[in-house]
Amino acid sequence: MIMNNKKEIYRKIWVVALPIVFQNIIDAAVNSADVLMLNYVGQSSISAVSLANSMVGILFMFLYGIGTGIAMLSAQYYGKGDLKTIEKVEGIGFKFALSVAAVGAVLCLTIPRLLMRIYTNDDLLVDIGAKYLVLIAPGLIFWAVSAVYMSILRCVGKVTTATVLEAIALVFNVALNAVFIFGLFGAPKLGVAGVAIATTISRFIQLAGCFYVSLFMKPGVRLTFSTMFKRYKLLEMDFISMAMPAIGNDLAWALAFSAYSGILGHLGDDAVAAYSIVNVVRNLGTVLCYGIGSASGIIVGQILGEGNREQGIEAGHICLRLSVVTGIIGGLVVLALMPVTLKLADLTPTAMDYLKFMLLVNTYYISGTSVNTCLIAGVFRAGGDSRFGLKCDLIDMWLYAVPLGLFSAFVLKLPVKWVYFLLCTDEFVKWPWVFKHFYSHKWARNITRDKVE
Questions:
Q1: Average confidence score pLDDT of the chain
Q2: CB atoms within 10 A of CB 346
Q3: Which residues have C-beta within 8 Å of that of residue 231, sequence separation ≥ 6?
């Protein structure tokens, strides 16, 4: 798979990125539809689901980190042409993913109200959100298995297949949301509970699709749990040394954004409602950014796994340039969606004022997200370098952004707009260190082994 020129590298990046972009668009569209439908149920429902999903988001980032660890190893072993080792990586991924999902499901089932109390002291939001967490718990297990297998599929050249599986689940999700929220076709009107049930069912459908692909698509890597119960000491050491910092990085990032939600959640329902909607619009603006970020990790990893370091570095530079462009495009998307968003949102005048300001902030904030995602979660991890991102985000978010948000909100008691603006400086504060590390090229390494037993 050696690429002889820049055009070929660009082509490979877009071949991988576009299906992921398509998946992200569907995902963002589903989230938009959820918020739009819940808009008819009430502002409190939007706020409660948003806060509950902050907790689910922590699990998502855990699974994303595990998926990144899988991708770091699988992409390079695929570049080397070693599918047997990739199946072993899959088994290691299942051990971690199912353990995390099981813990998350138990917490959601047993202490949902306590989890909601982390984000808000509003009793109504706690009641609504707790019901949502209980019903979404089984879906977390289904999601964990699918996340591991689809990460494998993307790394072995089956990006479109993984995207189709995700798209099917998301289409079912939005359709079932409509059925259960509005009581279509004789179903009961369940409101927020309907959203949780629809999500759980759609994740089960996605898992069924993964088993189907595993059985009938060849060549490829099978979805099998047998390797989960075997020990591969060297490979497990590689996975832990590379995946654990990535998991820690993504968890630190997710917990920080969860803290942002908690800070804003304690500033009132208006702030939460506006933040909930702006996150949906922001997701639409970042579909290209995350597509390039994911493609960066896969393509650069495959090239480095071939043993071609110089071409891997060149691919990294191409990915950086693309991330700058997609960041600008993402900001323009948010700007273009502002009139529609403000027209459709059924919020109080105060919440509408917050929403407008938050949307304007995101017209430039997305550029920071785009570059950092591409480099930290894509290019650096392609060479097994996940420790830098962990250190970077721990310092940036937990020694800078979160303390700044807490201080500005509860000590200085600044207005909501100022608190949000200060929280959104996090992506740009770390740029000097991120660019210095990128141009050092220390991340460009071949991490494969000849023997993994």
A1: 86
A2: 13
A3: none
Q: Is 197 in a helix, a strand, or coil?
A: helix
336-342 average pLDDT score:
93
Q: Which residues does 40 contact at the CB level (< 8 Å), separation at least 6?
A: 181, 182, 346
Instruction: Name the pTM for this structure.
Output: 0.76
Instruction: Compute CA 435 distance to the chain's CA centroid, rounded to the nearest angstrom.
Output: 23
Query: In whole angstroms, what is the distance from residue 445 CA to residue 377 CA?
Result: 15
Question: Do residues 293 and 327 touch, judged by C-beta distance below 8 A?
Answer: no
Query: CB under 8 Å to 269, separation ≥6 — which residues?
Result: 43, 44, 47, 122, 125, 351
Least confident of 83-87, 145-149, 337-341, 369-373: 83-87
- Whether the Cβ atoms of residue 413 and residue 405 lie closer than 8 Å to each other: no
Q: Average pLDDT of 303-308?
A: 87
Q: How far apart are the first and last CA of the chain?
A: 26
219-278 pLDDT, tens digit per residue, is: 567 777 777 778 778 888 888 888 788 888 877 887 888 789 889 888 888 898 888 889
Distance from C-alpha of 52 to C-alpha of 119, rounded to nearest angstrom: 8
DSSP H or E run through 267: none
| In the predicted structure, residue 420 carries a pLDDT above the cut 90 | yes
Which residue is associated with the tokens 């917490």? Answer: 107
Measure the CA–CA gap between 337 and 342, rounded to whole angstroms. 9
Sign of CA dihedral 300, 302, 304, 306: negative
Half-sphere exposure of residue 167, counting CA atoms within 13 Å on the CB side? 13
Q: Which residues contact 260 (CB under 8 A, 6 or more apart)?
A: 401, 402, 405, 423
Indicate the residue type of 56: V
- Which residues are within 8 A (CB) of 61 and not within 5 positions of it... i.e. 6 or more apart? 250, 251, 253, 254
Residue 385 · residue 442 · CB < 8 Å: yes
pLDDT tens-digit series, residues 421-443: 999 999 999 999 999 999 999 99
Residue 365: its pLDDT value, please?
A: 96
Q: What pLDDT does 106 receive?
A: 94
List C-alpha distances in Å: 187 to 46, 181, 401: 21, 9, 45
DSSP 8-state secondary structure symbol assigned to residue 184: G
Residues 418, 437: Cα–Cα separation, whole Å: 31
DSSP code at position 394: I
Give the residue with greater pLDDT, 410 vs 216: 410
Nearest-angstrom CA–CA distance, 433 and 113: 40
Encoded tokens for 188: 């009961």
AA letter at 299: I
